[in-house]
Amino acid sequence: xxxxxxxxxxxxxxxxxxxxxxxxxxxxxxxxxxxxxxxxxxxxxxxxxxxxxxxxxxxxxxxxxxxxxxxxxxxxxxxxxxxxxxxxxxxxxxxxxxxxxxxxxxxxxxxxxxxxxxxxxxxxxxxxxxxxxxxxxxxxxxxxxxxxxxxxxxxxxxxxxxxxxxxxxxxxxxxxxxxxxxxxxxxxxxxxxxxxxxxxxxxxxxxxxxxxxxxxxxxxxxxxxxxxxxxxxxxxxxxxxxxxxxxxxxxxxxxxxxxxxxxxxxxxxxxxxxxxxxxxxxxxxxxxxxxxxxxxxxxxxxxxxxxxxxxxxxxxxxxxxxxxxxxxxxxxxxxxxxxxxxxxxxxxxxxxxxxxxxxxxxxxxxxxxxxxxxxxxxxxxxxxxxxxxxxxxxxxxxxxxxxxxxxxxxxxxxxxxxxxxxxxxxxxxxxxxxxxxxxxxxxxxxxxxxxxxxxxxxxxxxxxxxxxxxxxxxxxxxxxxxxxxxxxxxxxxxxxxxxxxxxxxxxxxxxxxxxxxxxxxxxxxxxxxxxxxxxxxxxxxxxxxxxxxxxxxxxxxxxxxxxxxxxxxxxxxxxxxxxxxxxxxxxxxxxxxxxxxxxxxxxxxxxxxxxxxxxxxxxxxxxxxxxxxxxxxxxxxxxxxxxxxxxxxxxxxxxxxxxxxxxxxxxxxxxxxxxxxxxxxxxxxxxxxxxxxxxxxxxxxxxxxxxxxxxx
Length: 712
Known about the structure:
Layout: E1 10-14, H1 19-32, H2 39-52, E2 56-57, E3 61-62, E4 65-68, E5 75-85, E6 94-103, H3 107-120, H4 124-132, H5 136-144, H6 159-166, H7 171-176, E7 188-194, H8 200-216, E8 219-224, H9 235-240, E9 243-248, E10 263-266, H10 268-273, H11 275-288, H12 293-296, H13 315-348, H14 367-382, H15 385-398, H16 403-415, H17 419-438, H18 450-470, H19 472-487, H20 491-507, H21 512-523, H22 530-556, H23 563-577, H24 585-590, H25 592-613, E11 616-617, E12 630-631, H26 633-658
Parallel strand pairs: 1-5, 3-6, 4-6, 7-8, 7-9, 9-10
Antiparallel strand pairs: 2-3, 5-6, 11-12
Helix pairs in contact: 1-2, 2-23, 3-8, 13-14, 13-15, 13-21, 15-16, 15-17, 16-17, 16-18, 17-18, 17-19, 19-22, 20-21, 20-22, 20-25, 21-22, 22-23, 22-25, 22-26, 25-26
């Protein structure tokens, strides 16, 4: 970490009161150091990442971070707050704030920073030294690892803090948790953590599990399967393990390595929020001798019951993971290709789609030639949609050997006009065929050529035969019927479809149902028709409603929301206007029973109005920034505004009925009673933190204890 932080990037007296102000203050130091080129652009990327999930960690740590095109070199800035800043951690505000910036695409650097920093922060001596250090250069040296934390003089905490905080860490208490284990034979666990983006949650879960294992006296080794790949656990480590923990939201790679072990299979959120419970569950399974169906079978990675761990009720979860893998890789092609096509229409009109190839005719000074160029580049990108979808669905099921048959099946789907549905089926077929081949036991001398030659060859033959001869034509007929139905939509039928799409877009805000509705819409853009353009308009309009509605609600009734939520509400204006539905996730995670039904109602209104107004859209993304490309733009904006108003009103009404956060509603007519004296018990405080004020004030106090970990 020697080049990541210098004394100029350290602020030991950070005066910011909110996480947004803290990020700006530290980012300004990065700009001054020449590490960030555009302050506002970088802060927008930080806010977008923060809206997905709070970046606070227990122990007074805040780690805002992002990848951004406005970052010139991987950089780390550090700030120390005297009063604490709420970053959404369950134990309260953070006083140690680390702003991590990595260039766009610099996965290795970004993940190295995150993982290395997370592991440093588990050292109590390191965090205590940072809280006690008085010199910026000394703090930078500590973070770089150039200075021993033991060299910093750490003042003794007050008597009350010592008495309050010492008891949980008493060695006898930790050792009593494992009375059956001999001192020289600790209980051993291997764990795998992963999340869809492979950045923050992956390493937060790993750090949480490692910290809990230390306190429980358990020997734990973690394999982090991040976006930059992963380093496999040593076979000897896996063989010596007594149990396995999978904390993942994407498919675990090479599952067969864990055969014969008790497996605890959960989402990555559980690894962050309740690691001690997972370790206890793993211990219990090992003591009972529970072995999952996956562990008993010979299936290699991705085979058998996979992530279900033998529980067939998890099939839907696995199917969702496979489909999300394909959609996530398809979206960049959709965004690039769709926006290029939309831009070409804005320059040259819709008739530019029929222009001759620019390879044969291109005039530098003609706008139509440039429009045709953009259109043909965008169309080329769109040509990859179905093969990429199919290829990465198969990849999510059976790893790299399934890529070739998946892409082949997707290309065949285009050839036989099976379209988007054909790509879905081709991807699932390719993954299933590869998983079946992987079950076959082969001679050890053939194992080296199986994934690079035998499996792609055989699977491509099987998938090609099935797509051309067996299932391709029925799927093509179904695709054509669906297209004809969309083209014929009018009146009440179109409104009903708009309602359904609006509900799906707003139910999980970036989750599976949202992605299904979005994929359905963008699939129609590959061969646009009047019906498919209406669907795209309704989907984007409904997806803008949740963040805009919560932003409006926090503006008109701020007292109903915590300080952190009001800060998130300001960012939600930009996120909603940009069609980033995930901007509403922090609100839904904190109060799902009131927020989710409210935004679904507004999304349904917007989707229905967009379809009823006949609005069309040729761009797959962009929010209000592509309004000039929308058919009936004023009616489109009216539909968005109507849904936003409905959702905001419902949120306010439901929260008013419940009273301000944490306070029961006062019945009409009941007299107001004087405020009672503060009788709350004192809570342990981290060294250097001020005591809570008697009226519950202080930065972030309203959010204490309500933090949740939303999906990534």
